[in-house]
Design brief:
The structure is a homotetramer of 333-residue chains. Chain A is an alpha+beta fold. Chain A is built from four helices and 21 strands.
Chain lengths: 333, 333, 333, 333
């Protein structure tokens, strides 16, 4: 299998889904090794670098891409299998950006209060121990935390001539900010425009569910991904599969609507996987779903709805593509 | 340790938190073995029993209690340690009650659409295999699922002379409907009235996160619980502790507000546990919390915010009471 | 017509809907002249009186009542026609209570920010000119505003044994905080318990729609109200009628759910008034409703949905009771 | 004053804000007379034309424009003064589009219920009487309603390279769907891109507040508008001024966030107009605002926050531009 390596220059970054010409054309079956910068374009490198001074909010969540997938047409299904995600720097950064995050008023949850103190935390990476270190800024405390790499942002171009900021999670994927987007996962996205035009970015060395303060341990990432195309069958909302779970991601506001979207999409998928009537899928999923919140901080909020495969009869989606991609991935490592 | 057994008669059920005289007075340190009826008061016993015909919505979520805890005063902390939860019948029931649940319009999410078909599912319990069996009603499908007993409803009387339906989750606990409320967990609740007046009910043989259709595998339950009292320190919102996690539960609408409440309460708790400044607790929790949705179907929605102890330095809450209760519980089993 | 005058003492105030014995029994047809204290129980009398120091939050929105209406049974309709509302003091007070209001974080919209500065504004009443004077506290500005008296709180006891704080708007009425609750309006409420047990309070000398900061120009009020009872026909949610509009009030969170409730209730009422199919009422109301937000600050948010009578064929509700009460009221003035 | 007349062909319609080259360049001070098609591109012409069959949802809310305003730069303020709006056809159409609207589940408020019956209503226009006639489709009822023309959609290109569907209301204006957007109103929008690139469309012969069913009396419109540019001072969110009110429009989800945005923007504007400290503006507006909901059906919900000028000291915004434009408009009529 080909392994195409891409390290974009700053001028090549995309900051929207849609509205940007492709960085490169790829054929289905290609494996890509993609370098992506961190959400701040590398602007926060010490605790003295404050987001209000160093981060240009027009240039956050830089995307590596978009990639034009040969043969992809509206209605098709793009499959992205994540083979590996490796921290590409020796530190990550996180920040409490003024009026951004979940436990502060924002431009949407608008109040008249003062912002929280603009604070930056730097997490040093210990590759040997595979940890990042949290060092408190306002207290005397530190702790090592396991590195669990993930991508905040994976998406395709939206339909209808829209172009959306790379801060937005939506039907087309985007800034879903879920820890489930990690090595070993296959992400299925509906194709909206010719060539799909997918991109990735916003690497996190780790992130809690909800991404409470609005930023994870943000870090440059090297991601190995296999690109596949399924003709037709494009799902309404992003679907994820790994070895243990069937998953969907809903994104909207308020958060209950994000959840509803994800839950309905999984009801729909269970209709396909098991031939279940919607009422029966509704009932069964009511008793088995795991529902971690992904983010409550982005332009839309995201919730993941998961069903554990080990509870269920064997089934396969998209012709068993995930299992096949796992095998192909093994050959790459 | 005393083990007081209570099997209430129908006339003894409470259907509110607050507004009801105590069923019994207990001293701190008492262990109770409590029988609770299912959410439907046992009205759904076959798939022919439809909720629209058999369930009197004035009498759902019957509570076993309330119990007056000797010495409990407003501002104190009630600790309830769940030693065991055992299914008290050989079947559980679930239903898609018209205009109730998460994937239907309701009296609050009011639309002009017709209701979903009123459907009841009965889950037979296999005690040997510790499973309940889902049998589809509108399709040809069945699957055995592990029994994972929990209580939907654990709460104390609210302050200010209020009395709230046992369908409501709130600051006082109540119908939080989280799978975390299981054997091995200690639940800490702020006391609002003299005697605390706690009650439990709404046993579930298992439940998915979100409780999508509005009802779990509802079943009568025998719960063994140790009651303890801590003078002062009453938390603003329910806190849970088990051997692996620190947890809080927020309940409100919209769902993001439930999440905010839980996340802020855990920031507060981390200040107590680790001496962390709120900004540092905010940051640290942003990278480590697990945030399962509890329910999106009750009068308020609930979200759980959890931090894994193994990621953190050793700490103890409420004088190490949870660990002590685990030991006392071991003596009871 | 009898005119019964009630001036409660502090000990007689009710602070909940439900859970309180009746202050007095009244027969349908009775006119009452009710004195009600302001929301702060008169605790804020100068700009130096700060709510954080002077207001006991367990004792706000004192209710005058409850009144047991002879013959009222669950399912009936209580009609309260407001004949007159007169300021009972020469000043009103308003405050930005810390962590209470619409443009601040609250215990529900929980953030980690500091509160807004606790500030009290006193509005002197000029009876001759019928104005109250706003005097800025942090700037050099004052302006006279017309007095437009209204009641924030009108409600009955809830069903199911609940007792709810007088800060709550709900299906049973309560703290709806709409300027529509003024002299000339008839309020129809569904009866939930024997005797209905209605109460009123929370007089406002004026209030903007939304009640943004959480408090209006709060003032003691003398309210003249005629009490009537209609057997049966209890509406699901509060309905209002005045000479110009049919109105409903929905209360919930998020605000769109409050709106949905009000809009559906008016669709239902238009079915009764004009024999319209729900789809036609939905369409017609889509083109004519006026929808002022009532409050975005209480335990539930409230929205009013109004249809202007002059746009519509003549119709009458509840046997033309509103028109009849207007006539009776004229005899009282 | 020049009066430039524009009647676009179908190929010239824009369906997004941003992402579209300008239809024409105009200099500040120009008056335009713009024909706009209805939201359905004229596809619904009888009650037999059902939206599910005739409406291509990729092509709704066709925009007339965008117009490149000479000299407009990011940070400037675009002023659009609406001189006249005249129905351009003799009928309007409204529809209950399946899974679209406020009293139905949607793709966001996702449930498993069936859609409401797809229904179209045609409103004949009587120019002499200036009315449109509602004729019930499922009942025997009709009523004439006054024509009150307005534009659902007025907006500029968004910042950051985004292109947004003409169904979206946002910071850049767009599909706000408020009846306040009518002849006599001046709309102030912050400029985000060189030339501003504004467009208009989605004429309504009348609309209720909330636009409950998702569509107004949709009609082709001829709009006369004067375009002006103010250097600098671009407001964060749309501001409107007419002879009687200062107004802002907030758009977001949930609806309380839309309200918060509008209320904060008016606090900010009152700081500029009257030199009021934010706390005093918060207080004053709490007592005087009128807050009609605009829509609860679009991609974002919108609320309007209004302050009546007659209650306030004289003030002028943007150098008294609105008054001046009123005079210029009088010369055009």
């Amino acid at each position: 299998m080909d392994l195409v390596e891409i390290v974009p220059s700053f001028e090549q970054y995309a900051f929207t889904f849609g509205g940007v010409p492709p960085l490169r054309r790829v054929t289905p079956g290609t494996a890509l090794r993609l370098w992506s910068d961190d959400a701040f374009c590398g602007a926060l490198r010490s605790v003295e670098d404050l987001s209000s001074e160093k981060v240009d909010l027009r240039y956050v969540n830089p995307q590596t891409g978009p990639f034009h997938v040969e043969g992809a047409e509206p209605g098709d299904t793009l499959a992205l299998h994540f083979v590996a995600m490796e921290p590409a720097r020796d530190w990550g950064a996180s920040a409490a950006i003024p009026f951004f995050g979940g436990l502060t008023s924002t431009d949407r949850v608008a109040t008249l209060q003062d912002p929280l103190p603009d604070t930056t935390w730097i997490y040093e990476l210990d590759r040997a121990r595979n940890t990042v270190t949290f060092v408190a800024g306002h207290s005397d405390f530190s702790v090592d935390l396991p590195v669990e790499p993930m991508l905040g942002t994976v998406g395709v171009a939206p339909p209808g001539g829209e172009a959306r900021s790379s801060l937005v999670p939506e039907r087309f994927g985007g800034n879903m900010d879920t820890p489930q987007m990690r090595a070993g996962t296959t992400c299925f996205l509906g194709v909206n425009v010719e060539g799909a035009l997918f991109s990735v970015g916003d690497g996190h060395y780790r992130q809690g569910e909800g991404e409470a303060c609005g930023t994870a341990v943000e870090g440059a990432m090297t991601t190995t991904v296999i690109v596949e195309l399924i003709k037709g069958g494009g799902p309404a909302w992003p679907r994820l599969e790994d070895d243990t779970h069937w998953m969907t991601v809903g994104s909207s506001r308020p958060l209950e609507d994000a959840w509803r979207i994800g839950q309905v999409e999984l009801v729909r998928w269970f209709g396909e996987l098991y031939g279940l009537h919607a009422m029966d899928a509704y009932q069964l999923l009511s008793q088995i779903t795991e529902v971690p919140i992904a983010n409550v901080v982005d332009a839309n909020y995201s919730a993941v709805v998961k069903a554990r495969k080990s509870l269920l009869p064997t089934a396969s989606a998209y012709g068993g593509l995930h299992a096949e991609l796992r095998q192909r991935a093994a050959g790459l490592l």
